[in-house]
Amino acid sequence: IFNTTFQDLSKSNGGNPVELTTVKCQRCKDEEARNAAREKEMRELRRLIEQQQIEQQRQITQIQQRHEQQQAAQARAISESEERHRQQVRQLHIQQQSHLQLQLVDNTATYNQIHQQVLKLEEEIVEEEKSLVDFSDEK
Q: What is the pTM assigned to this prediction?
């Protein structure tokens, strides 16, 4: 049988193609089983790695979102703080302006009082001068 060709085998099979089967030794069968187990293990490891990468990406995305939210919150806090500061400065200016206006009113009143006193004194001086003139005329 070792010297027969595929054609001879085909002829002996009624002209149909002959399928040759291989008989494997136990060592080969064991090796194939180990290879199949390793392939299965590798597929499982790839699947686990893929899942881990997806989870890591999800966590990275969450961290980025939290960071963006914190930055936005800080920006709002700074903006609110700046607005409070502007309002405090505005209020201080209003108080200073009000104080200055009160001082101006007070100074104006004081000026008017002094001016009235000056006018009175001038009138008194004029009266004194008239009385002196009248007195000198009488002499």
A: 0.45
